[in-house]
Amino acid sequence: MQVDEGINSVSYQSCPMNGGDGPNSYSNNSNYQRRLIEASKDLINEAIHDKLEIDSSCVNGSKPFGIADLGCSVGQNTFIAVQNIIEAVEKEYKAKNESNSPVLEFQVFFNDHSNNDFNSLFRSVPYSSRNYYAAAVAGSFYGRLFPNSTLHFVNCSCAVHWMSKVPTEVLDRESLAWNGNRIHYTTSSEKVYEAYAAQYKNDLECFLSVRAQELVGGGLMLIVVPGQSSHLVSQTPRATTTWLLESCLLEMVKMGSISQKQVDEFNIPIYFPTLKDMEEITKNNGNFRVERMGIVRGKGYIKPSVEFLVGSMRAVMEEILKQHFGDEVIEDLFERYAKKVAQNLDSFYTKFREYEDLFVILKRKMN
Amino acid sequence: MQVDEGINSVSYQSCPMNGGDGPNSYSNNSNYQRRLIEASKDLINEAIHDKLEIDSSCVNGSKPFGIADLGCSVGQNTFIAVQNIIEAVEKEYKAKNESNSPVLEFQVFFNDHSNNDFNSLFRSVPYSSRNYYAAAVAGSFYGRLFPNSTLHFVNCSCAVHWMSKVPTEVLDRESLAWNGNRIHYTTSSEKVYEAYAAQYKNDLECFLSVRAQELVGGGLMLIVVPGQSSHLVSQTPRATTTWLLESCLLEMVKMGSISQKQVDEFNIPIYFPTLKDMEEITKNNGNFRVERMGIVRGKGYIKPSVEFLVGSMRAVMEEILKQHFGDEVIEDLFERYAKKVAQNLDSFYTKFREYEDLFVILKRKMN
């Protein structure tokens, strides 16, 4: 298991997306995520217009406006998200300031795990069109990444469903939450779901607690995260892809190319929070005012094809599968997966429209 | 030619050191540079003790202390340099503040060209022992890299002898400074030297001008750069390695593996400034007070071996040679180079002790 060590020496599981710009790269297989970034543009504009205190101690041109994109991965998505934020802030800043006010400088921090492909990221920065200072920060967003009160806007899109680790109970044969023969809570029992939910609660509490230190008072945070409206796991439309992947792995156990033990010990460290999860954890943290919080359906919808569904899965899951099962089984695994997706393609036309995502805008309270 | 584009859309030639941690990597072939970092530790301590205004508007715990290491490359050298700076600042900060003063946070920006191997850099950050927030910034240090007044200490060690580009005149057959059949001014005529010196003057002026904007008033900059005490090029001890490399290339022209035209069009974009260069350019810029400026001999001295001399050359020159002559000639070139170094090893025992380096401490004047 690859880990990332924070400034506080805590280790976090690291699940990088596929780097580079090849056919299986995240760059070329992240259209769903792109759609969500596009869908959040109006929300960003509205939040910055209504909630960002320009010309106050928060944003005043004497310090750079700090933006962090957490879980930026590689490819154009992160640059689009950042550009949307900057355009909105610039518009407000110009509207609320005299033309001779100091120019507002932007410093953007692109963050992901230390084994993210930052070389690709730096090569794809839109140098000629950008109007900001770019920096990369490596490390888990469940730990501290930035000095106190240096960020004005945090963006975290399609990232905070990745947990800091697999809940220990699901790996423990003695536990009621043991998840042998299964790879995720969405294909498993209520006990397993509870273990995931408890771990997620811890993780998101850490996330909010460190962000509260890094954001200036009055600073904003946009969280877009794959979610679920019901805690009943069988009702999670995203369960289908997990179930298909799991059935491929179980087939491969039968074929002898991987072991039962390997499957028993593999669990995907992803949780799809409900609105209730998000409300409770934010409230417990207490440092943020909830400006917007809602769940939407089908915002990332693209007419599904086998290529798209397999590509999307592979770009985000290949590394973690390689880490656990070894490089040599990956081609076979995704060939099997492609076959199963093809057999079930009809069901995706419906399911995929039902994918739910949470959109949350938080504002850091003044101390 | 690989280039790096700045926020101002100016292009700069990019000459990355060898990445990774293999036998030809910069990580494993930068002992000379390491020696210079060690040699500058006392200078850093002294400058921070005597010249850094702790508890003023410059350093006061309300903002993070910003450090940039420009031309950081890969490997441990950059982390050692940064740690030296942080230890010195922390010591002063503690000595000059009450124990209940706010903790001073450090934010360190590791900078190099966008084709530097930042993935290796991030993997080698000493996560468990570091006491700073780390970020990487890609781009040429001849352009703007950071927002206004956000840095308190800039370190630039063994980097600013790399110019932003080869002077255009040395590539122009019609010019008196045309440098056909030669690859550097140290093996060539006075006219070629003058063209290099003029380009360097421009480059260093840009460097100082952008740093003056990025450093806070009272902020410090340490520049360590391979230099020369005389402008007489034949007296530059470093000419020997260039001359050997050049003679390998000319041999390869005779063998037909590269063309005369390729050699005519190749020039190393490196200049070794004199004290006089540095004094004049700093004075013209006007934004800095010179706190220390001197030239030292043999500070990086290590008893030379063929392996060391070839490794050092290859780690820094392989990429730029590949870019120009192609990957396929590199092995042959460095085999020839190794033979010539072996034949001339005796002369290195003397020459290498005479290598000269400039050590400069500048302080940003208050506006």
TrEMBL record, chains A, B:
<dbReference type="InterPro" id="IPR029063">
    <property type="entry name" value="SAM-dependent_MTases_sf"/>
</dbReference>
<dbReference type="GO" id="GO:0008168">
    <property type="term" value="F:methyltransferase activity"/>
</dbReference>
<feature type="region of interest" description="Disordered">
    <location>
        <begin position="1"/>
        <end position="28"/>
    </location>
</feature>
<keyword id="KW-0460">Magnesium</keyword>
<dbReference type="Pfam" id="PF03492">
    <property type="entry name" value="Methyltransf_7"/>
</dbReference>
<keyword id="KW-0489">Methyltransferase</keyword>
<dbReference type="GO" id="GO:0032259">
    <property type="term" value="P:methylation"/>
</dbReference>
<dbReference type="InterPro" id="IPR005299">
    <property type="entry name" value="MeTrfase_7"/>
</dbReference>
<dbReference type="GO" id="GO:0046872">
    <property type="term" value="F:metal ion binding"/>
</dbReference>
<keyword id="KW-0808">Transferase</keyword>
<keyword id="KW-0479">Metal-binding</keyword>
<dbReference type="InterPro" id="IPR042086">
    <property type="entry name" value="MeTrfase_capping"/>
</dbReference>
<protein>
    <submittedName>
        <fullName>Putative S-adenosylmethionine-dependent methyltransferase At5g38780</fullName>
    </submittedName>
</protein>
